[in-house]
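Handoff note, outgoing to incoming analyst
You'll be picking up this chain. Sequence as last confirmed:
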Amino acid sequence: MKMMRKTAVCLAAILLLTLGFGGCGISQEPETRTVFAMDTVITLTAYGKNAGSALDAAVQKLNDYDVLLDVDSGDIGAINENAGEFVGVSGEVYKLLSDCVEFSRQTDGAFDITVGRYVELWGFRSQTRVPSDEEIAEAEEFIGWEQIELADGKVKIPEGMQLDLGAVAKGFVAGKLKQLLTEYGVTSAILSLGGNVTTLGKKPDGTQFVVAIRDPNDADAYLDTVQVSDSAVVTSGSYMRWFEQDGVRYHHIIDPKTGKPADSGLVSVTVICTDDTAADAYATAFFVMGAEKTSEFLKSHPEMNAIMVKTSGEIIRIN
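Most recent structure output, in case you need it:
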């Protein structure tokens, strides 16, 4: 069995971002912290006199969220462990779960945090494997965002269900880290959390940050760049985490309706918008929905832009 995990957007993207800092008349040197958290390599870069202390606080907050949102610890772990009962959670987690239910409603379940049993079956938390159709059918009983109950700061899921926030946690945390940096007086920063890149303000010289979108068919190339400020650029792709068995490749983005890797005709989706949590959730949802449904959906959501790459190689840009 062959397995591949991509823990960063891509080397080309990181290189481009780094080059974007220099040669532009910038007088301030950036402060940078690189850590491993939330199952990925995370690089936080900020400018200004308080950048160092702000990033140190951000790293601590990042580690706290890593525990809080994990399937086996913190608030999410408590909900999973006590399935069948109402569990009190922090205000932040309650709001996040409320948002997740709304994302699910808007995407007709293409985004669904109740896929924990499916994720466990496919082994993407540990040892990957191809589950049988019978196993998937048995797990299906415990899938369904409509079964999440939220009331007075407490959360309840049915016995046997497992929440998994892998499709939204990094976006949520990115937004919270930007809030923290702002409290420290930082007005210019760029944060890279795996396939999530988010920016605070503009570069110190007043120009926008440049973020590269990786070519999903070439790890050493990028297919586009976007210029952004105060925005998130989030990519979901079948190339990021996958394994191969008996000559067949299986990726990690599970379609909640089938319990199997989404087969939507897309290899990657990038979402650009100001809401980090939404960008993360919709990037996953759009990958599951496919190009046609996503294009129709975005007609009523002008606050979001998207770049989709089809398996045929066709690139669809929606601005």
